[in-house]
Design goal:
Elements (H helix, E strand, L loop, with lengths): L1 H6 L3 H23 L1 H4 L5 H8 L3 H12 L5 H24 L10 H10 L1 H14 L3 H31 L10 H24 L4 H11 L5 H9 L4 H29 L1
Helix pairs in contact: 2-6, 4-6, 4-10, 4-13, 5-6, 5-9, 5-11, 6-11, 6-12, 10-11, 10-13, 11-13, 12-13
Length: 261
């Protein structure tokens, strides 16, 4: 909310959010309707972990650090799109096996929308605009926002520390987990790169959303897995391995973007 108020809601933010949301939705549909992909990623835990990135805690701080300030709305928009998708459909997908009635409950969907972190931020911004206090509130929240982003990085490290105390061997990876990691760190950024070029994004704009796509698996995927008691080890393993791997893959991604662009 602090970032949105400071930077404002513009066309870049909306475009980026739509790209993130519908790219993930399209890939989920594609994976589940073609057996060649379904056999590689057979459950929703694998699919969500390979498509929902750590944009809030890692992607936005990286973008702020290395990209022009003009791209901040693109990074925030991408984060909003992924967060909306994760918390709207993640619980629905993960509960499907435990729920004989797989029809979409619109009351539950509305509740999910209102309880969504991204939705709350957008609603807060709209209320601020309604009462014409966006400038005051944006200045007031911007410094705490920066602090929260820095602390968020620490939270990622803390979460990983908790995960590593688990006796699971994170380096004995199944084929499905390997495919999930490849999709998250390599194929998804490539797909987003081609989408950005198709939409004639400039160098900085392309870099902004591709970097967000190339972030490791989101902490939210393990939180949902723990909440619904399904595939916790899978979510934890992908989070752990993609986060470690991103120490290498993100600099490579930045280098390739600079070379290509």
């Amino acid at each position: 909310m602090g970032l949105l108020l400071k930077e404002g809601i513009d066309l870049d933010l909306i475009k980026s959010a739509l790209i993130a949301f519908f790219s993930i939705a399209f890939l989920i549909v594609l994976i589940n309707n073609f057996s060649i992909f379904k056999t590689k990623l057979p459950n929703y835990s694998l699919q969500l972990a390979s498509l929902i990135g750590n944009t809030s805690f890692l992607g936005i701080p990286i973008a702020i650090a290395i990209l022009p300030s003009s791209t901040i709305n693109l990074t925030i928009g991408f984060d909003l799109g992924t967060t909306l998708f994760a918390w709207l459909f993640g619980p629905f997908f993960l509960q499907k096996k435990n729920n004989l009635n797989n029809t979409l409950n619109f009351k539950e969907l509305l509740k999910a929308i209102l309880n969504n972190p991204a939705s709350r931020g957008i609603i807060g911004v709209l209320i601020a605009y309604l009462f014409k206090i966006e400038n005051f509130l944006g200045d007031y929240l911007f410094i705490p926002t920066r602090i929260v982003i820095c602390l968020a990085i620490i939270i990622v490290g803390t979460r990983l520390g908790i995960i590593t105390n688990n006796k699971t061997n994170f380096f004995k990876l199944s084929q499905e987990i390997k495919y999930s990691i490849i999709l998250k760190l390599f194929l998804l950024p490539l797909i987003i790169f081609f989408i950005s070029k198709t939409l004639n994004f400039n160098v900085s704009e392309t870099s902004a959303i591709v970097l967000q796509a190339g972030t490791p698996s989101a902490v939210s995927t393990i939180l949902m897995a723990e909440a619904y008691k399904i595939n916790q080890n899978i979510a934890a393993t992908i989070l752990f391995t993609t986060t470690l791997s991103s120490i290498i893959t993100i600099p490579i991604l930045v280098f390739l973007l600079n070379m290509i662009n």
